[in-house]
Write a structure and sequence with these properties.
This protein has 429 residues and is of the alpha/beta class. It has 9 helices and 23 strands. It has a 6-stranded mixed β-sheet.
């Protein structure tokens, strides 16, 4: 490692799957370089490195289990793991700064409600995507999270009818989970396409299988219907945090309506004691203020443009990496690809730091997993996706094939990978 008069400053903006995976890899490669310091014993101090994690929350949230957590309190309360509970994050070279990122410039990060700036020599942007609450978590502390989850579960428990708008992965899993846990309730899924889970990566067989499971559970599916009007007697309220730059983050605005009547594009009137809006996500790329040094824009419709090494694809910003949902990598916006991207970005930063002065090291790249594009032979390529539809059903697409029903059930993770995710947060234990 280069010895300098001042420590090398590394910032990671965003702390969930992508950001925390980056932090973990930085710890292992820059601090815990001896196998004895793999987490069972804290790595020794290193004055040459300063690593800062910036997150608006004080803990990691296992989003994969959020739909089940809205229905089952014992499970849902485990989805938030405070950063203070992760021993390796307490290293003297690591600091966790709680705050809302409002602007990322080429060498510093600005936060809401403070004039303090986080300066960096290297940066991993892992801000993810914004999704409206409660699927997107509005809380910033674990106590707030537990309070909000209790309130949402209360709404579901008391409701006789629940409407879910949006038939993507989150909407289908939420509708299936509610109907599985509360079979007596009327659950309706409204989706604008002819089948759930839209997108070129998914086969019609897979999408039809998802629809069949929903219908077998008793979920009323209204396909090819779009909500065009809504009247609501009341709505739940979640405080919106002010931000001084960029748009309000959607997850800070609650999307749950009570006693609402929806009008669809065909004129149907659909009433729900509780209505969940699971429509789409929003990139946070607008928070990044990086002027392009060429005619190529920094941002694409899919996020921050990056090259194969996860670096911002612009020679002016080779010290900035983007991982997970905020990047333009042609992968599904899921936890697995975000985690892999974070590890690769952090590993490449470590390679740059360890390289002899004047030398440019070879940087790593993720294995290419194209979803919905054509490969070099003009053949369609497909990704891997597993939908957990309640505790007894799963639909899995692997390549162009749909895994048989019985096999898919056996391939389910009973806790929706909560145990696996949590184990990775505690290095060496």
């Amino acid at each position: 490692m280069h010895l300098t008069n001042a420590p090398i400053r590394i910032a990671v903006a965003g702390g969930n799957y992508g950001g925390l995976s980056a932090m973990r890899e930085l710890y292992l490669q820059l601090l815990a370089t001896d196998p004895d310091y793999n987490g069972t014993k804290q790595a020794p101090p290193n004055p040459n490195v300063k690593i800062t994690l910036i997150d608006r929350r004080d803990g990691f949230v296992h989003y994969l289990g959020m739909t089940r957590g809205l229905c089952q309190s014992d499970y849902g309360n485990k989805l938030w793991v405070p950063y203070s509970a992760m021993p390796w994050l307490q290293h003297s070279s690591i600091s966790v700064k709680k705050g809302i990122v409002t602007r990322i410039a080429s060498r510093h990060i600005e936060l809401a409600d403070t004039s303090d700036r986080v300066e960096f020599d290297y940066l991993v942007v892992a801000l993810g995507l914004s999704r409206a609450a409660p699927i997107g978590v509005a809380a910033s502390t674990r106590d707030e999270y537990l309070r909000d989850m209790d309130r949402q579960r209360g709404l579901i428990s008391e409701a006789q009818s629940v409407v879910v708008v949006g038939g993507g992965a989150v909407g289908t899993e939420l509708a299936a989970e509610i109907k599985s846990d509360f079979p007596q309730k009327e659950v309706t899924l409204i989706h604008s396409h002819s089948l759930p889970i839209p997108g070129p990566s998914f086969t019609s067989e897979f999408r039809q299988s998802v629809a069949s499971v929903l219908q077998s559970l008793g979920v009323k599916t209204l396909f090819c219907e779009r909500v065009v009007d809504e009247s609501s007697a009341s709505s739940t309220e979640v405080g919106v945090m002010p931000v001084k730059h960029g748009d309000i983050l959607p997850e800070l605005v609650d999307s749950v309506k009570r006693n609402a009547t929806l009008t669809t594009s065909s004129g149907l009137k659909v009433y729900g004691d509780v209505v969940f809006n699971c429509l789409g996500v929003k990139t946070k790329a607008s928070l990044i203020d990086l002027p392009s040094s060429s005619n190529e824009p920094i941002f694409s419709p899919n996020g921050i443009r990056v090259n194969e090494s996860m670096q911002v694809d612009d020679p002016s910003y080779s010290h900035i990496f983007a991982a997970g949902d905020v990047s333009s990598k042609d992968v599904l916006k899921f936890a697995g690809p975000a985690s892999r991207g974070g590890r690769i970005a952090a590993s490449n930063i470590a390679r740059l730091i360890h390289a002899p002065i004047g030398e440019t090291p070879a940087l790593g790249a993720p294995k290419r997993k194209v979803n919905g594009d054509k490969n070099g032979d003009g053949e369609q390529e497909y990704g891997f996706i597993k939908l957990v539809l309640g505790e007894r059903h799963a639909v899995i697409q692997r390549g162009p094939e749909v895994v048989p029903t019985k096999a898919a059930i056996h391939m389910m993770s009973p806790d929706i990978k909560l145990g696996k995710a949590t184990r990775k947060l505690y290095i060496g234990t």
